[in-house]
Amino acid sequence: MEAPRSPMLLLLLAVLGALWAGGNTFETHIIGGREAAPNSHPYMVSLQKSGSHLCGGVLVHRQWVLTAAHCLTHPTQLLRLVLGLHVLGDPGLTCHIRQVVLHPEYKPAPHLENDLALLKLDGKVKPSKTIKPLALPRGRQAVAAGARCSVAGWGVTHQGGQLTRALQELDMRVLDARMCNNSRFWNGDISPRMICLAAYSKNQAPCKQGDSGGPVTCSRGQVAGILSFGFKVCTNIFKPPVATAVAPYTSWIKKVIGH
Ligand SMILES: *[C@@H]1O[C@H](CO)[C@@H](O)[C@H](O)[C@H]1NC(C)=O
Predict the structure, then answer these.
(1) 48 and 128 share a domain?
(2) Which atom of ligand 1 is closest in space to residue 192's alpha carbon?
(3) Which of 36, 61, 187, 253 has the fewest CB atoms within 10 Å around its CB?
């Protein structure tokens, strides 16, 4: 059974999908996740359109946010970045986006690749207890199979349901890329610059709409990946969620930020 994959798109698509499918196929949430301790992820950003959460993002510098390129489908002037949030809707620091830089080799769905974008804030944020950049990986190698990681996001927590109000997190491990790429799994769609993730229990998954663009952290204090795509049925163990590895892109990121 090789159904086409579905990128983790926007909440709107999730809602439409749930309506079309009678709410059955877009089971899109961090199932089995837990509420994060308030402000334990001070680098976490909510990308919003008209006050609605679209995607996650990661503050990687006082003036730059790293997210998934496929999240940037709306005109920039309609988008805002909200920093320093734990519960969606709480007052946070809302910033306009001064500049959007998609990765020059970004390929949209159905064969998503290089799914990264950098968003420049309209000013430099002052680091605080609730707002603090997360460091880039030091090496150039993507995280190795078996590494213990965690993902975080505000995506919906029940199929056809609403966005989570409080930030959720879930522990995951990195799958072997060759296995993830084989014909039973993603069948050739996994590039060497992607990370496939698996939950520890088969009833858990971060495939929720609204989680795209959010961080995968494996070693403390560093962003290892940015959530990119999953499958319609998120607990399908043969279609594990996939993130873009950040390490292979650090020179591009530093070049953009340095300009
Ligand atoms: C997955 O398979 C495709 C197609 O054969 C290949 O281009 C790609 O490099 C493979 N990815 C990995 C991680 O080996």
Answers:
(1) yes
(2) 13
(3) 187
